[in-house]
Design goal:
binds S-adenosylmethionine, Rossmann fold, globular, alpha/beta, 5-stranded antiparallel β-sheet
């Protein structure tokens, strides 16, 4: 028996898919994110925007600088901070200005092994970085807060269902035959209620996933910012209407990653491969509504970077249109191209921006909404 079959056996021989995914990703010993070897990043299974190029953090640092000029030094909270690439990139970009822009930095990372790797990497920063394990440990502070989460929500366990007779049946993972295998059961109450709330009827045989905890997690996160906050969530996802449209994603969005290869079988090597499922942006919108936050925008990553000042940053660093085409300029442009790629990250990754209090107008200005660009 594999470790995960033993775990499922100990839980009665069958678990709903979200419980299986929780084990596969976060089991303290065997989970994908518990491994001493970092699964993602340059040498890993897949790239995120902060690990693909420091230009992501660099442009983000522009937004922080602009914001701090208006509301004063900020508390920056990076949730699901991973290997620390984002925080390291922001601090490096701000350089000597870091303590004018940031009052402090909080890094929230669930995995102990990833957290300790980060502590090592960020030991020498000029700004104090605090580490915590859970979002629930965050408390509102005196300073205006900027929350950032890159690929937090698509790394959470999801329930998996299939359309049957106008309703849904839920997928469980069964180890009756020794190895984990799919089985179908009537949906648990909360699963049926979720899909009813989305007002979508799945077609016969259509597969779909849902992160039932997303709304609650996002409410908790937003509440940590108090009354003056800006929240940027970078992730793969769609609004419910598109996420559950059978013409686009009849097979659901659950995907596996291993060595930059995309797969569809989450039962293949639990703990050794990444599992990810798209975010339903409506869940995060609902959380914002409850907390009286305002949506500033939901844009593809490329549009976010352009709005936040990518062109000016390139000019200021002598890398604009008139720059000499030496090797360094070409490498930089290739990196930026990856972030802007209309066939990849640039359009598939989206940035949801929500704000509260004085941050609403500041964010609109920082992201060129006042300048008449399409919003
Ligand atoms: C896909 S990686 C993204 C890392 C990083 N943000 C990036 O974009 O490079 C997801 C990370 O989220 C962490 N994570 C998952 N759930 C979390 C939670 N509830 N609180 C904090 N970190 C979490 C995982 O341990 C993992 O390091």
């Amino acid at each position: 028996m594999t470790w995960i079959a033993d775990e499922i056996e100990a839980r009665g021989g069958a678990v709903p898919f979200d419980e299986f995914m929780e084990l596969a990703l976060y089991h303290p010993e065997h989970g994908y994110y518990s491994s001493a070897e970092l699964g993602y990043g340059r040498g890993g299974d897949y790239l995120t925007a902060p690990t693909a190029s420091e230009w992501y953090s660099r442009i983000f640092a522009r937004v922080l600088s602009f914001t701090a000029r208006v509301v004063g030094p900020l508390r920056l909270v990076d949730v699901a901070s991973g290997d620390g690439s984002f925080i390291a990139g922001v601090l490096e970009s701000l350089g000597a200005r870091a303590d004018e822009v940031l009052a402090d930095v909080v890094s929230v990372e669930r995995s102990g092994s990833i957290r300790s790797r980060q502590v090592e990497r960020l030991a020498q920063t000029s700004i104090r970085v605090g580490w915590i394990e859970r979002i629930s440990e965050l408390k509102p502070a005196g300073e205006s807060t900027v929350l950032h989460a890159s690929e937090l929500y698509d790394a959470q366990p999801v329930v998996r269902v299939v359309g049957r007779d106008g309703g849904v049946r839920e997928f469980w993972i069964d180890v009756g035959g020794g190895a984990p295998a799919w089985s179908e059961r009537p949906p648990r109450e909360e699963v049926a209620a979720y899909f009813e709330r989305q007002r979508v009827t799945l077609e016969e045989g259509q597969i779909a996933e849902a992160n039932l905890a997303a709304d609650g997690m996002h409410r908790l996160l937003l509440s940590a910012a108090g009354d003056c906050g800006l929240c940027l969530v970078l992730d793969y996802g769609y609004e419910a209407r598109r996420l559950y449209d059978p013409r686009g994603r009849g097979g659901g969005s659950l995907t596996t990653f291993h060595r930059h290869r995309l797969g569809r079988d989450p039962l293949e090597s639990p703990g050794k491969i990444d599992l990810t499922a798209h975010v339903n942006w409506d869940d995060l919108r609902f959380a914002a509504k409850v907390g009286e936050w305002t949506e500033v925008g939901l844009w593809p990553l490329a549009e976010f970077l352009v709005r936040a000042g990518l062109e000016d940053e390139l000019e200021e660093r002598g890398l604009g249109m008139d720059a000499d085409l030496d090797a360094a300029t070409i490498t930089t442009r290739q990196e930026i191209k990856r972030l802007l790629d209309p066939e990849g990250m640039g359009s598939d990754l989206k940035v949801l921006i929500q704000a509260k209090g004085d941050m609403i107008d500041v964010a609109r200005e920082a992201l060129s909404i006042e300048l008449g660009i399409r919003s």
